[in-house]
Amino acid sequence: MNEYFSQIFSAIVLILLGGVNALLIWTLHRQWWKIQGVRRATWMVPLSGVLLAGLWALSKLLGVAPTERLFAFLTSFFFVSFIGLILLLPFSGITLTLERIVRWGWKKWKGRNQADLSAEVKTQRDISETAPVEKVDVARRSLITRGAAAFPLIAVSTGTFGLARSTASVVFPNVEMTFNNLPPDLDGLRILHISDLHLGYYIRLEHLEELLIGAEAQRPDLVLITGDTSDDLTVLPEALTMISQLQPRHGTFASLGNHEYYRGISDVLRIFDRGPVPLFVEKNTTLKVGRSELVIAAADDPAAASEEGVGKENFLIRSVEKAFDSTPSNAFHLLMSHRPEGFDHASAMGIDMTIAGHTHAGGQLGWNGRSFFETWLGVGKYLWGYYEKNGGRSKLYTSAGAGHWLPFRLGVPREVPVYTLRRGRGNLA
């Protein structure tokens, strides 16, 4: 059952989204709902998506990889388009409400009384000639109605474009992190950060190979992986071997994400134990860089909190504290935390730098280098990019992820940040 989680989850969600979509059309667009073709499409489209999810599962069962990928992308297209429809249908409803207000205001301005209105309705029923003023009103109403109908088209077009953008190559943003207390020999150290690769249906080993070719050109001194590496554990051993071949001079280290727990934490731990990349779970190591020291520590993911019967926030606080147990005070401290919320407690402890992922920039929807949800809606915290606390002494970068579990990216590229540590005053370059 766990092996077909994505297909089952997609089918269930498509049915729920279809129901929400039908409810929105029925409540906000009664005139559309009266059209038989609209009613049929409202139910046939989600059922088609469920059928595609079933064909996706069948292809996986039969081991037909090309067909499996095709049905996975088509299922995702339905998924993304439905979400777009649900977000935009209220706006088209507002547009139609505006139409009614404009019509009422126009008639009020003309000083028509009820008798005039009744005569107009009768005249229209008799298909007689209308007054010139009414012709203007019809034209305006037609324009607004067409504008309302454009919103569903925008949703589908946006879904198509976002799906296409998800196939673009990964980018390597160069982020300079400047610290007043940076030990001298760490000045210029380059750290490559891989997070949320989600190897599986949409990101495969050939994509990882392309990523690693680009990563090698960045000449990193250290490679850190902050969880959600693979949703297909059969390819995880080979993926770790491929990543280890980068051979940065200070090593490669990994931490856990929530998907490691979802896919089977005991199997994941076994694969890492046998593989070439050390996995840190609430532990740390101290690297000697010249005469300076760099502490690399990793928190566990709160997905494990339910097993211990504690809240996720308290679990993460305790995990961050445990990760830095018995570390040298004069070293530079760096935390790998899959979830960016770890930055809150890390900064309270005076930890210099935190790197995280998990959020996918808040749904892989961005604007001008920030999550759309932070920029425009003012919701969410640490969703994508650079953040600081303690007057700039503690810094965080949340990666938008090198992969995705849903192939949709709009304004948010697949990214593998490269951090360059700098000594002195300043913030993000």
Written account of the structure:
- The chain folds into 2 domains: 2-165, no CATH class; 174-423, Purple Acid Phosphatase, chain A, domain 2 (4-Layer Sandwich).
- The protein is 51% helix and 15% strand.
- The protein has 14 helices and 13 strands.
- Strands 5-6-7-8-12-11 form a 6-stranded mixed beta sheet.
- The chain is globular, with a radius of gyration of 27 Å.
Summarize this entry quickly.
The chain has 429 residues and is of the alpha/beta class.
Assembly classification: single chain
Order of helices and strands: HHHHHHEEHEHEHEEHHEHEHEEHEEE
The rough form would be described as globular
How many DSSP-defined strands?
13
Q: What's the number of structural domains?
A: 2
CATH class of the largest domain: Alpha Beta
Number of helices: 14
Radius of gyration from CA coordinates = 27 Å
CATH topology descriptor of the largest domain: Purple Acid Phosphatase, chain A, domain 2
Largest sheet: 6 strands, mixed
Question: Which second-level CATH architecture of the largest domain applies?
Answer: 4-Layer Sandwich
Helix content percent band: 40-55%
Main structural class: alpha/beta
Placed side by side, the strands forming the largest sheet appear as 5-6-7-8-12-11
The averaged pLDDT comes out at: 83
Instruction: For the record, give the distance between the C-alpha atoms at the N and C termini, rounded to a whole number.
Output: 47 Å
CATH homologous superfamily label of the largest domain: Metallo-dependent phosphatases
